[in-house]
């Protein structure tokens, strides 16, 4: 049925043309914007996901900048630490030269002072944007990642870089908790004496028959024939020991006993005895004790710290010798080896007449500082307190003095500790810089992957869109023609009335 009031054909053609125009408009939008999902109405789920990922990309760009800044900062610190190591190596060469007595130590000391001033200059200048990793003790966190969880929460992660103080200051001794040596309930060294006379051991002869009496001191054997009686035998033994010229060892008779004395600073002297002949005996300690071996302890006073205890930043240990104090305050991540070496440096810097030091570790792993004295007796005590400010990593550098034999000897051991500290600092910064570089490379690749993922979700397929555009343009032309034909239909009805 045909009607001049309702043109169904035109309505169908119009709806078809509107649909074609809508698809054509969408395709043109894809081509012009390059996106298949340009807004939430296109595909709300994909649009929401893409926006979250785009925000992550923005965050990772900021992280990349943070890593670049951090890498530059650490690179400056590493270069500074390496330079300090080179300068300390030069100082070591000067210290070695000063071991000879026929050199001009005053000029050598002047060179050391100049190199020390240069080290302080390098440490002060090794900063980037105001941050100096060679000064202070507070660690620095470099933003390295944003971690998104499945529930949508985001957490920032950082790379922690430890400062490596290469300053020469002595720190500040605290007034906090009284410290033990780190082992449960054990106290530090009580007040005692740095003796100059050495340590002793008694041996006692019993002469009953003809025969020989032998005493071996630190590997050197001394043998005498039995005298007329015990007293004569002991007198002969004392004379033979003193004539043997054993380093640091002397013998004398005191109240009928043979007293062996050793002034060896850092070495125990092992003593073994034997006697031949019926009834003859040469015993360690009281007569008829049945002991034929002993030891004369080293003259040095041993201050031993726990092999299991922990050291906290700010823990300060103080050695007081004849009312003058020598301090070392621990820094971050240090242990008792660092404490012992720091105390040695502090005591050596005092250049106390006749006092020498060394560092040792026993079989159990415990570290100790040994302090010897060859002059009149000195009082010594040790205490520890928490809550101080850490000594610098090059503590003691500005106190190196090779103008005397004692100073030159002490400097040789102490400069090795300083070199090791600077090497450790450079290695720590090198490791941190390498990690930052790896993380920066990963963030760059991750950002590219996120961008690619976003493109997969929302970008338009341009080849497909181009083909669809041409098809829709043809459909639009056909739709216009179909609508035109449908609009001509009522005109055909008019011809029936002619």
UniProtKB/TrEMBL annotation:
<dbReference type="GO" id="GO:0005198">
    <property type="term" value="F:structural molecule activity"/>
</dbReference>
<keyword id="KW-0282">Flagellum</keyword>
<comment type="similarity">
    <text>Belongs to the bacterial flagellin family.</text>
</comment>
<dbReference type="GO" id="GO:0009288">
    <property type="term" value="C:bacterial-type flagellum"/>
</dbReference>
<dbReference type="GO" id="GO:0005576">
    <property type="term" value="C:extracellular region"/>
</dbReference>
<dbReference type="Pfam" id="PF00700">
    <property type="entry name" value="Flagellin_C"/>
</dbReference>
<dbReference type="InterPro" id="IPR001029">
    <property type="entry name" value="Flagellin_N"/>
</dbReference>
<keyword id="KW-0966">Cell projection</keyword>
<dbReference type="InterPro" id="IPR046358">
    <property type="entry name" value="Flagellin_C"/>
</dbReference>
<comment type="function">
    <text>Flagellin is the subunit protein which polymerizes to form the filaments of bacterial flagella.</text>
</comment>
<protein>
    <recommendedName>
        <fullName>Flagellin</fullName>
    </recommendedName>
</protein>
<feature type="domain" description="Flagellin C-terminal">
    <location>
        <begin position="413"/>
        <end position="497"/>
    </location>
</feature>
<keyword id="KW-0964">Secreted</keyword>
<keyword id="KW-0969">Cilium</keyword>
<dbReference type="InterPro" id="IPR001492">
    <property type="entry name" value="Flagellin"/>
</dbReference>
<dbReference type="Pfam" id="PF00669">
    <property type="entry name" value="Flagellin_N"/>
</dbReference>
<feature type="domain" description="Flagellin N-terminal">
    <location>
        <begin position="4"/>
        <end position="137"/>
    </location>
</feature>
<keyword id="KW-0975">Bacterial flagellum</keyword>
């Amino acid at each position: 049925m045909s009607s001049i009031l309702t043109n169904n054909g035109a309505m169908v053609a119009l709806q078809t043309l509107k649909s074609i125009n809508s698809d054509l408009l969408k395709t043109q939008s894809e081509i012009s914007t390059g996106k298949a999902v340009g807004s939430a109405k296109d595909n709300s789920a994909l649009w929401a996901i893409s926006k979250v990922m785009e925000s992550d990309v923005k965050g990772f760009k900021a992280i990349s900048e943070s890593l670049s800044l951090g890498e530059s900062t650490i690179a400056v610190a590493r270069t500074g630490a390496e330079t300090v190591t080179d300068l300390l190596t030069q100082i070591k060469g000067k210290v070695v030269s000063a071991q000879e007595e026929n050199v001009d130590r005053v000029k050598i000391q002047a060179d050391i002072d100049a190199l020390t001033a240069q080290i302080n200059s390098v440490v002060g200048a090794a900063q980037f944007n105001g941050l100096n990793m060679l000064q202070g003790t507070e660690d620095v966190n470099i933003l390295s990642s944003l971690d998104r969880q499945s529930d949508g929460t985001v957490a920032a992660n950082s790379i922690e870089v430890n400062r490596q103080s290469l300053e020469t200051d002595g720190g500040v001794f605290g007034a906090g908790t009284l410290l033990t040596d780190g082992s449960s309930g054990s106290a530090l060294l009580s007040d005692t004496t740095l003796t100059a006379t050495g340590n002793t051991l008694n041996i006692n002869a019993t002469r009953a028959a003809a025969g020989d009496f032998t005493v071996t001191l630190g590997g050197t054997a001394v043998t005498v024939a039995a005298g007329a009686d015990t007293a004569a035998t002991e007198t002969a033994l004392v004379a033979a020991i003193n004539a043997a010229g054993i380093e640091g060892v002397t013998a004398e008779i005191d109240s009928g006993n043979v007293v062996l004395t050793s002034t060896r600073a850092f070495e125990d002297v092992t003593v073994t005895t034997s006697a031949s002949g019926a009834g003859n005996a040469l015993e360690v300690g009281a007569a008829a004790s049945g002991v034929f071996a002993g030891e004369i302890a080293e003259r040095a006073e041993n201050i031993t710290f726990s092999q299991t205890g922990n050291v906290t930043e700010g823990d300060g240990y103080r050695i007081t010798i004849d009312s003058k104090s020598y301090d070392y305050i621990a820094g971050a991540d240090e242990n008792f080896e660092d404490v012992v070496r720091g105390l040695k440096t502090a005591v050596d810097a005092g250049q106390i007449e006749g006092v020498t030091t060394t560092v040792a570790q026993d079989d159990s792993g415990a570290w100790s500082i040994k302090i010897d004295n060859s002059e009149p007796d000195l009082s010594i005590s040790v205490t520890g307190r928490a809550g101080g400010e850490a000594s610098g990593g090059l503590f003691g550098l500005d106190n190196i003095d090779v103008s005397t034999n004692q100073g030159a000897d002490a400097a040789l051991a102490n400069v090795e500790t300083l070199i090791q500290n600077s090497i450790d600092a450079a290695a720590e910064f090198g490791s941190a810089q390498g990690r930052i570089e790896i993380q920066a490379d990963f963030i760059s690749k991750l950002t590219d992957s996120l961008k690619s993922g976003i493109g997969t979700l929302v970008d338009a397929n341009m080849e497909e869109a181009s083909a669809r555009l041409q098809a829709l343009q043809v459909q639009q032309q056909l739709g216009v023609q179909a609508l035109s034909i449908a609009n001509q239909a009522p005109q055909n009805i008019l011809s029936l009335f002619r």
